[in-house]
């Protein structure tokens, strides 16, 4: 079974390809829109920036203007369909906030994910009870957060680790994330058992960062790195912030975060030692 594609990444790739084609033809945004009878340049600008789901008819019109040859045209049509698709499991994402949908679409097509969390268990590894506590805490800061809808969305995202051809997933978490802190004992114990269960999966790796690990500073901001089966799809980094997350896809930015992830992996406990420490805390 082929891996699904990530619509958000396909949109970014399609936009970059269309922008290159327009520049090859030495056309401005205004000139293209005038030829197509589009009211303003904002529509084309959003397509090129990967900020909107493209209509296939619009993409076909653009390919005609840029006089794209059949082999490249066919490849771009496939990408355009992936970029606009609502097929498959993400039809169920209707209730998701735009923020969660972005993560879900990245996860859907990823071949590899490396996630760093300095304070809590990463979302893909959370139990429903643990997730409820985290989401409810977010609701206190932003009353617009729909706790129940976010819980359903989080549960839908968890399926990516159980699909027939799952991504290679690596979680880097600090000791703080494994502390009970103020969580109810049973919620914490269930979460620790769940981590041990997931760590036994062949495609899941969990690495624990001890306090004071590594020579360099430990990042305070959670981030995740995504790679994709098609090497032409841009590698992507997501930075998790309090209100709005940041998506990075330039090679320079991604390289720096992948280097940081490599440094954290070097400082983290080995996989088997991580499992032993988590199990001892659960038994302690």
Summarize this, please?
Helices cover 50% and strands 11% of the residues. With 284 residues, the protein is an alpha/beta fold.
Fold and architecture overview:
The protein has two domains: 7-84, lambda repressor-like DNA-binding domains (434 Repressor (Amino-terminal Domain), Orthogonal Bundle); 92-283, Endonuclease, Chain A (2-Layer Sandwich), CATH 3.30.870. Helices cover 50% and strands 11% of the residues. The chain has eleven helices and six strands. The chain has a six-stranded mixed β-sheet with strand order 3-2-1-4-5-6, sandwiched between helices. Strand 5 (236-239) and strand 6 (246-248) form a beta hairpin. Helix 9 runs antiparallel to helix 11. The longest helix has 18 residues, at 7-24. The mean pLDDT is 88.
SSE pattern, N- to C-terminal? HHHHHHEHHEHEEEEHH
Quick one: overall form? elongated
Question: For the residues shown, what is the average pLDDT?
Answer: 88
Q: In what range is the share of β-strand residues? A: 5-15%
CATH architecture of the largest domain: 2-Layer Sandwich
Instruction: Determine the number of helices (DSSP H or I, runs of at least 4 residues).
Output: 11
Terminal Cα span? 43 Å
CATH class of the largest domain: Alpha Beta
Strand tally is: 6
Count of the separate structural domains: 2
* Helix proportion: 40-55%
The strand line-up of the biggest sheet is: 3-2-1-4-5-6
Query: Would you tell me which CATH topology of the largest domain applies?
Result: Endonuclease, Chain A
- Biggest sheet descriptor: 6 strands, mixed
Radius of gyration: 21 Å
Which structural class fits the helix and strand makeup? alpha/beta
Low-confidence stretches: none
């Amino acid at each position: 079974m082929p891996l699904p594609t990530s619509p958000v990444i396909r949109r970014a790739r399609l936009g970059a390809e269309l922008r290159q084609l327009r520049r090859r033809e030495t056309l401005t945004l205004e000139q293209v829109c005038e030829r197509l009878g589009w009211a303003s340049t904002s529509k084309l600008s959003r397509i090129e920036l990967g900020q909107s789901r493209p209509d296939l008819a619009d993409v076909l019109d653009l390919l005609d203007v840029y006089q794209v040859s059949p082999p490249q045209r066919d490849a771009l049509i496939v990408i355009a369909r992936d970029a606009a698709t609502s097929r498959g499991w993400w039809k169920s994402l209707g209730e998701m906030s735009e923020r969660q949908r972005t993560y879900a679409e990245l996860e859907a097509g990823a071949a590899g994910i490396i996630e760093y969390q300095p304070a809590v268990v990463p979302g893909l590894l959370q139990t429903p009870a643990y997730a409820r506590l985290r989401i409810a805490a977010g609701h206190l800061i932003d009353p617009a957060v729909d706790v129940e809808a976010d819980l359903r969305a989080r549960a839908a995202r968890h399926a990516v680790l159980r699909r027939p051809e799952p991504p290679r997933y690596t979680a880097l978490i600090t000791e703080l994330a494994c502390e009970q802190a103020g969580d109810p004992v049973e919620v914490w114990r269930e979460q620790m058992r769940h981590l041990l269960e997931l760590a036994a999966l062949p495609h899941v790796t969990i690495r624990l960062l001890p306090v004071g690990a590594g020579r360099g500073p430990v990042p305070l901001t959670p981030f995740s790195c995504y790679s994709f089966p098609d090497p032409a799809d841009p590698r992507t980094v997501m930075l998790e912030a309090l209100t709005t997350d940041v998506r990075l896809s330039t090679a320079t930015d991604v390289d720096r975060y992948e280097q940081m992830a490599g440094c954290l992996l070097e400082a983290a406990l080995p996989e088997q030692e991580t499992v032993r420490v988590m199990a001892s805390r659960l038994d302690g």
